[in-house]
Fold this protein.
Amino acid sequence: MKGGDYIEKQSYKRFSEEQVNRANSIDIVQLAKQHGYKVIKKRNEMRIPDMGGLIIDTRRNRWYQFSASTGGGPIQFLMELENMSWKDAVETLLNEEGEVNIVFKPSNSIKEEKKDFRLPEKNDTYKHLFAYLVKTRMIHPKVVQQFVAKKLLYENKQHSCVFVGCDLEGTPRYASIRGTFTMQGKEAFKGEAAGSDKRFGFCRVGKGDTLFVCEAPIDVLSYMSIYKYRGLDSLIEQEHLLSLGCTADNALENYLQEHQKVTKIKLGLDNDKAGNEGCKAIFKKYSGQYQIQRIHMREKDMNEVLVTDMKRIAARQKELVMEKASYELEQEL
C-alpha cells in the first residue's frame, strides 16, 4: 500500500495486553490513598480500617476483602470499591484510552486531519486533584482553590489534573493533563489535550510589569505556594505567571504581545539541560526589549524547591517542639 486515508473500522476501544499490565502495576497502597482511603500498617501487612477486613499484600500488589470474599489487583480495586466498569478502571489507571481498530482505504495521498480542541470531560469530584496537589506536591490549598474557582483547574474522568489555558476572551484553547496515579518507579502521566494551542499557556494574569515564566503548570502553583506559606504572597500578587508547557517560547511570545505592560521577565525554567538551553534561547531573543533575570535553584524545578522548603520547615518545627519539651522537663526537675 503506497498511502491512504484511515477511517475507523468500529467505534469501540480495546486495550492491549501491555496496557492492562501497566494498569495492574499501579501501586495499590498509593492508589487507595489517592482515593481517600486511610491505609495503616498492622504487623506485616497493610490494612484499610472499617472496610470489612480489607488487607493489601504489598509484595504481590494484591488486595483482599474478607467481608465480601473478593480481591485482586488495581483494576479490581477500582471496580469493586469505586464501582467502575473494567474499561473505566483501566482508563483511570492509565489516563489513556484503548487503541482504535482501523482499516486503510487506498488513496494516492495521505491527508492529515487537524484535531479540533476540546477540553477533557470534567469529573464530578475534586478529591483526587486536591489529594495529589496538596498532599503529594505540597501546593497550598488556597492556591489550588484559586484556580479551581476560576475554572482553570479541574479533575477529569480519569482523575487527572487538567490545567486550562485561555485566550483574551476567556475561551479555553489549551489543556495540560497531569495524572494523579503513579506506577512503581515511574512518574505520573503527563500530556496535553488533543488540538491544544501551545500559544495559550496556563497562567495567572497580573497587573504589574513583571512576568514569571516556568515550564509546567505545577511550577506556577509551587511558585505561588512558596510565598503563600511564608506569608509573603503580597510580594508577587501583581506579577504575571505563565507556564510554557515546555521550553519553547510559543506561549511567551504570544503573552508578551497581549500584555505589553510587561517589561521584566523572571525565568524559572527547570535546572536541567533542556531548561538551561531554553533560558539561553529566551535571553538571546528577548534581552534587547526586556529586563531578564534567571531564578537559580539547586533543585530541578520549582516544585522540588517547594517540597524541600516544606520538609525543612517541618523538621525545624519538630526541633522546636523537642527543645520546648526538654526545657519544660528541666524546669520540673
Q: What stands out?
A: The two ends are 91 Å apart (CA to CA). DSSP finds ten helices and 16 strands in the chain. The chain has a mean pLDDT of 84.
